[in-house]
Amino acid sequence: MDAILVADFIIKIQFRIRDICKELILTDDQLRMVMQKLDDEMNKGLSKATHDDAVVKCFPTYVQDLPDGSEKGNFLALDLGGTNFRVLLITLEGQSFDMKSKIYAIPQSLMLGTGTQLFDHIAQCLALFVKDLNLQDKVLPLGFTFSFPLDQQGLTRGYLVRWTKGFNCSGVIDEDVVALLEQAIERRSDVKIEVCAILNDTTGTLMSCAWKNRNCRIGLIVGTGTNACYVEKTKNVECAIPGNFAPHKSHMLINIEWGAFGERGVLDFILTEFDRAIDENSINPSKQLFEKMISGMYMGELTRLVLEKVVNAGLLFGGKCPSDLKKRGKFFTKYVSEIENDAKGKYTNCREVLAELGLRNVSDQDCENVRYVCSVVSRRAAHLASAGIATLLNKMGEDNVTVGIDGSVYRFHPYFHDLMTEKINQLQNHKFDLMLSEDGSGRGAALVAAVAAGHR
Ligand code: BGC
C-alpha cells in the first residue's frame, strides 16, 4: 500500500473504534443530568421520610468535630475494605505523627466465607500485631475503618447494609460489626482493646486531610470501590438518632455511599452494553452501578470488554483475540494506568502489558488504539467522579473547599487528578482544591478515635 492508502486505512480504523467507544464519552449535558439526579437521590437519603427507601443513603457518621491538631496519644486502627487488611499503631502528638503498620492478605476464601471466620481472622491479626509490639497488656483505644455501607447508629455502632467490592461473608448483614469484632476478640481473650469508633474510609480520608488542611470538607475514595463523605449541617441530618449526637454542634460528616447511585434505572440513560455485562457477571447484579462505572474493581474488566469488541470487529491485532483477552478479569486495572503512563508516541508499557496477555510484535498503531480505549474508560470514570464532587460543592455552596482524595485509581492513574480538576471547573463555579490524602484509613481512624475519646 502506498503512504496515502495506509494513512486512509488507519483513519478509517480509528473512526470505527471511536464509534464503538462513543457511548462511553459523556457530554457536559449528560454529566449535568447525573449531577441533578445525584442531588435528588442524596436529598432522599438525608430526609427522614424517604431515607429507608432511598438508594443513596447518606448515612450519618456521628462524627461532628474535625481535628484541630491538638489530638494526642497512641491508637490502634484496623482497616478493612480494599484488597488488604491492615493493623496500625498510630502515635499522634501535635503535628507530628508516627505509624507502625502491618498488612495481612485477605484470601478470596475469607471474602466469601462466614462472618465468624472473617472476624476471627481480623482478631488474630490484631493479636499478633499487638504481641509483636509487646502491647498486649495495655488497653488501647481503637478506630475501626470498615469500608462498606454501614447504617451507623452512633460512633461505636454500625449495622452492615450490604457487602460490596467482591466481599460476601455470610451472617454479617444487619449485624453490628463492632459487636462482631468484640465477640471475636473475646473468643481469643488474649488482647484488650476499647473500640472508640467505627468509620468509613471516606471519613478517615476527610479527617486525615483536615488534620493538615483546615479547608478540607469532602473525603473521596476512588480505589477498589468509590464513595465520598462531606460536612453537612446537623439540622439537615434528619436520620441521626437523637441522644447519640450533640444537636448544638453545627455539623456532622455524612457518608454518602454514592457507589449505590444508579440503581432502579436512574443512570440507565448513560449505561452502555459494557456496563450491563459487568453488572450481570458481578456477585451483586443491579447494585452499586455508579461504583461499577468508576472504581478500580471494574475498570480493567470494562477496558477488556471494549478491547474484545474492537478486536472481534477486526479493528485490532488483525482481528485475532489473544486467549487471555477473552478471559474475565485478565486485564488488570493497573494496566490502564501503566498504558496511559507511556510518553506520547512511545508504547513501552503498552507492549509489556500486551506481552503479558500473550501478544508480541504489536504495531505502533495497534498500541495507540489500545491506549485510546484505556483513556476513554478512565476519562469517563474521572468525569463521573467529578460530577459527584461538583454536586457536593454546589450543595455546600462554599468556596475554597479542599477535597481529600485517596484510592489506587486516583493515586496511580497519570491524569486522573488533572481530568477531575478540569471537569469539576466546567461543571460548577466554586473554587476548590483536590488534595491527595495520606493514609486516611489509618491516621483518619486514629483521629476519629482521638476526637471521640476526647484525647486532645
Ligand atoms: C463501599 C464504601 C467505601 C468505598 C470505597 C464502596 O464499595 O460501599 O463504604 O467507602 O467502597 O472504599
Automatic annotation (TrEMBL):
<dbReference type="InterPro" id="IPR043129">
    <property type="entry name" value="ATPase_NBD"/>
</dbReference>
<keyword id="KW-0547">Nucleotide-binding</keyword>
<dbReference type="GO" id="GO:0006006">
    <property type="term" value="P:glucose metabolic process"/>
</dbReference>
<comment type="similarity">
    <text>Belongs to the hexokinase family.</text>
</comment>
<dbReference type="Pfam" id="PF00349">
    <property type="entry name" value="Hexokinase_1"/>
</dbReference>
<dbReference type="InterPro" id="IPR022673">
    <property type="entry name" value="Hexokinase_C"/>
</dbReference>
<dbReference type="Pfam" id="PF03727">
    <property type="entry name" value="Hexokinase_2"/>
</dbReference>
<dbReference type="GO" id="GO:0001678">
    <property type="term" value="P:intracellular glucose homeostasis"/>
</dbReference>
<keyword id="KW-0808">Transferase</keyword>
<dbReference type="InterPro" id="IPR001312">
    <property type="entry name" value="Hexokinase"/>
</dbReference>
<keyword id="KW-0324">Glycolysis</keyword>
<dbReference type="GO" id="GO:0006096">
    <property type="term" value="P:glycolytic process"/>
</dbReference>
<dbReference type="InterPro" id="IPR019807">
    <property type="entry name" value="Hexokinase_BS"/>
</dbReference>
<comment type="pathway">
    <text>Carbohydrate metabolism; hexose metabolism.</text>
</comment>
<dbReference type="InterPro" id="IPR022672">
    <property type="entry name" value="Hexokinase_N"/>
</dbReference>
<dbReference type="GO" id="GO:0005536">
    <property type="term" value="F:D-glucose binding"/>
</dbReference>
<dbReference type="GO" id="GO:0005524">
    <property type="term" value="F:ATP binding"/>
</dbReference>
<dbReference type="GO" id="GO:0004340">
    <property type="term" value="F:glucokinase activity"/>
</dbReference>
<protein>
    <recommendedName>
        <fullName>Phosphotransferase</fullName>
        <ecNumber>2.7.1.-</ecNumber>
    </recommendedName>
</protein>
<keyword id="KW-0418">Kinase</keyword>
<dbReference type="GO" id="GO:0008865">
    <property type="term" value="F:fructokinase activity"/>
</dbReference>
<keyword id="KW-0067">ATP-binding</keyword>
<feature type="domain" description="Hexokinase N-terminal">
    <location>
        <begin position="17"/>
        <end position="211"/>
    </location>
</feature>
<dbReference type="GO" id="GO:0005739">
    <property type="term" value="C:mitochondrion"/>
</dbReference>
<dbReference type="GO" id="GO:0005829">
    <property type="term" value="C:cytosol"/>
</dbReference>
<comment type="pathway">
    <text>Carbohydrate degradation; glycolysis; D-glyceraldehyde 3-phosphate and glycerone phosphate from D-glucose: step 1/4.</text>
</comment>
<feature type="domain" description="Hexokinase C-terminal">
    <location>
        <begin position="217"/>
        <end position="451"/>
    </location>
</feature>
<comment type="function">
    <text>Catalyzes the phosphorylation of various hexoses to hexose 6-phosphate.</text>
</comment>
